[in-house]
């Protein structure tokens, strides 16, 4: 069964840190570019960060550069999002996504994990 399962979301105060995890099953994990997206209330889902198959290439949304770090452990089929200096505007449901190498569309999605940052 193909599945992406996120964990680690919770409520936190502004300035705090969180680590999200996303574990994949049913796929050849190392053949996928992995990414995190987020959707804030009343807003469209937005790209946060991505990481290529071996972790050598990462990309970030401007709003999180310098605060968030995306990592992966192919031995554990897991991608992480380390978040620091959280702001209230980071409040959102965070989704893990996967796209097969050589493609441009994320076709696999997790169900999301909620992060709430209070001021």
Q: Can you put this structure into words, describing what you see?
A:
There is one protein chain. This protein is mainly beta and about 120 residues long. The protein is about 0% helix and about 50% strand. The chain has strands at about 5, 10-15, 20-25, 30-40, 45-50, 60, 70-75, 80-85, 90-100, 110, 115-119. Strands 2, 4, 5, 6, 9, 10 and 11 form a 7-stranded mixed sheet that branches. The model has no long low-confidence stretch (mean pLDDT about 95).
Task: Summarize the topology.
Blueprint (H helix, E strand, L loop, with lengths): L2 E5 L3 E3 L4 E8 L6 E8 L6 E6 L6 E3 L7 E6 L4 E6 L8 E9 L7 E2 L3 E6 L1
Parallel strand pairs: 2-11
Antiparallel strand pairs: 1-3, 3-8, 4-5, 4-9, 5-6, 7-8, 9-10, 9-11
């Amino acid at each position: 069964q193909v599945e992406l399962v996120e964990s680690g979301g919770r409520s936190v105060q502004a300035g705090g840190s969180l680590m999200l995890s996303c574990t994949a099953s049913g796929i050849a994990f190392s053949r996928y570019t992995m990414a995190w997206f987020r959707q804030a209330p009343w807003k469209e889902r937005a790209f946060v960060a991505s990481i290529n198959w071996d972790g050598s290439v990462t990309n970030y949304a401007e709003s999180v550069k310098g605060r968030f770090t995306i990592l992966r452990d192919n031995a554990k089929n897991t991608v992480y999002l380390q978040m620091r200096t959280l702001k209230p505007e980071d409040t959102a449901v965070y989704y893990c996504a996967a796209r097969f190498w050589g493609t441009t569309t994320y076709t696999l999605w997790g169900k999301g994990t909620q992060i709430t940052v209070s001021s």
